[in-house]
What does this fold into?
Amino acid sequence: MSLRSRIFTHAILISVCFFMLLPIYWVIKTSVSGENLFVYPPSIIPADPNMFYYVEAWYTVDFVQLFSNSFLIATLVVIVNLVLNAMAGYALTKHFPGKSLVMSFLLMSMMIPFHATIIPAYLLTAELGLLNSKLGIALPALSHIVCILLFKSNFEAVPSSLIQAARLDGLSEWQILTKIMIPLSKPAVATNIILSFIWSWNEFLWPLIVVRSPDQQTMPLGLVSFLASFEDTTGSLYAFCVLVVLPSMLVFLLAQKDFIRGLTSGATKG
It folds into this structure.
């Protein structure tokens, strides 16, 4: 690639990054300045930045309770996803009768939006007695088909000779999964953690349906309660939005390299 082409490519990428990051910067700027969004001309740099709006957002609602609820639910979802998705992905690398039917069923299930299954999910959760509980909130997110297929593709990239050698050494299938397959699929593990954590942390509709008491509310539901408490607090509103989004952004940034590798490592064999 010539120097002119590289400069042009980098200019395009920088421009795209600028337009993508601009809304995030504007939210952060408003959260520390409290400026009216409709003021013209808009200010690029906050005039009088301070952390007052974060303090107000912290004490307006029971932020510690909301955060702990979301964190416990997301942690439960991540752990169970790792176990179930890894087991299912490893099982799908085997040859067994009806495997193609199972794969077809999984792929077809991905086309069904969760909104179409909310009523059966609610009735099932109610029959299990899990309404208004952390386990009930986490129940529909305890496994994701995308992550199952991701583990499957990464496990299939492990050399079969290594698995055969492990069997000759007397390792069981569970030991092969935990001691060989998962350690060699760290990008898939990181991707599973990121996706399951973000999806669980940002979930709004399902907790809104199953939660009845304020002490079981998650961060997105707390944002709704915050909106009900104030009418015109732009700075505090955006400060609360930053606090809600920050954990999922940190999780992604800490493992973004493994996340990218997890999406592509299964593309090559061996």
Observations:
- The CA atoms of residues 99 and 105 lie 10 Å apart.
